[in-house]
Design a protein that fits this description.
3 domains, 12 helices, 377 residues, five-stranded antiparallel sheet, 19% strand, alpha/beta
Length: 377
């Protein structure tokens, strides 16, 4: 509760409302009118990448927080949450379950401080809502209805969702690239007899067999893997060391100073340490790693990452649940297309060793860049 009230509004953010364009101003005024008239309404902010959705979010948050009101900012992904002042992931803030097969409700008591915070808030803003599962939105709706003893949608609270179901293009002046991205996103780009899209020659670079050797010292961090049932530890230890489950760091983690890494767990979202945060290793120590955040509002901040115990997902295919104690990071010279969603990058290299496998992935990958010259494949 106190951490939410103590969020300091950046002086530059207080000036944002005066810089809104007409469409942003219309949405801004409409939402604040609903907030101050206590009209429980639900809004969805839709717009292509680069049109200023985040700019509008920051304007709303600063306008309310500068007057002493509570405005809760969440996002579906940790990376998107790190861009918003005081942002948290929706699952972390509202205790939304990760596995809906066993539980469909938020694990939040009406007597908790978070419940009180939600009820006292004037506005709840959820970015990248288009990435959330339907069950997560339904659980959030049920939570607000329960906390506010109301059958109205979202308990009659003012809720602003934001996102883009199509992940449309950044707004740029280069119409050819824009049209190409729109054709990809809308499925209108011609395909060959195999159903594959042919990328423009400007996007393709040749393979190079040569590589540069790095002469900096290499650090190797070995994890401790233990079966949940200690009786089987001796039988499966070597097998566990060879496993690389989804969402867990590798058994043998190889790092060098100044190498890029990505965080795999929400350690401290309020300080920018959330799942998907990108960092640069600055110091490699025996028990901690000193790293610098390179993205979002905490960019430039140095943090210390400890080893922590991490358990395999319940649905892991190898069928042997185990706990791996390791630094919760992976090397991040590259990231998955899904991880990149919501980010605008200065330079993008797209590596498609295998064809994309779901709707919108190719479009999301290509539209992370602003300009054609910033993109290579």
């Amino acid at each position: 509760m106190e951490s939410e009230r103590s969020i300091v509004v950046d002086p530059e953010d207080e000036l944002l409302p005066s810089k809104l364009n007409p469409e942003q101003r219309y949405a801004f005024d409409l939402i604040l009118q609903s907030v101050f008239s206590s009209e429980g309404k639900v809004f969805f902010i839709d717009g292509p990448g680069g049109t200023g959705k985040t700019f509008l979010y920051r304007s709303l948050l600063s306008a309310l927080r500068s007057q002493g009101y509570i405005a809760i900012a969440v996002a579906t992904s940790g990376v998107a949450a790190s861009i918003l002042p005081g942002g948290r992931t929706a699952h972390s803030r509202f205790k939304i379950p990760l596995d809906f097969s066993t539980n469909k409700t938020c694990q939040l008591s009406k007597q908790s401080s978070i419940a009180k915070l939600i009820c006292e808030s004037k506005l709840i803003l959820w970015d990248e809502a288009s990435m959330a599962k339907r069950q997560a939105i339904e659980a959030f709706n049920s939570l607000l209805q329960d906390l506010k003893d109301s059958d109205l949608p979202f308990g009659g609270h003012v809720v602003v969702f934001g996102g883009d179901f199509r992940q449309t293009l950044p707004v740029i002046e280069h119409a050819c690239f824009s049209d190409f991205l729109l054709r990809i996103g809308e499925g209108r780009e011609p395909v060959d007899e195999n159903g594959d899209v042919t990328l423009p020659s400007d996007l393709v670079i040749p393979y190079h067999d040569k590589h540069e050797s790095l002469d900096r010292e290499l650090y190797t961090y070995i994890s401790s893997d233990k079966t949940v049932n200690q009786r089987f530890q001796g039988d499966y230890e070597d097998f566990l060391n060879s496993q690389n489950p989804k969402g867990l760091p590798p058994h043998k983690l190889l790092l060098k100073v100044n190498c890029p890494i990505m965080l795999l767990r929400n350690l401290n979202p309020a300080e920018g340490l959330c799942n998907g945060t990108r960092l640069i290793c600055r110091e490699l120590r025996q028990h901690t790693i000193c790293a610098e955040i390179v993205f979002g509002q905490h960019r430039g901040k140095r943090v210390f990452i400890p080893r922590i115990p991490l358990q395999t997902p319940e649905n892991e295919k190898n069928g042997i649940p185990f706990i791996r104690t390791q630094f919760p990071i992976r090397l991040c010279f590259a990231m998955t297309i899904n991880k990149s969603q919501g980010q605008t990058l200065d330079y993008v290299g797209v590596y498609l060793r295998e064809p994309v496998f779901s709707h919108g992935q190719l479009y999301v990958a290509l539209s992370r860049a602003r300009l054609l010259i910033q993109l290579k494949s």
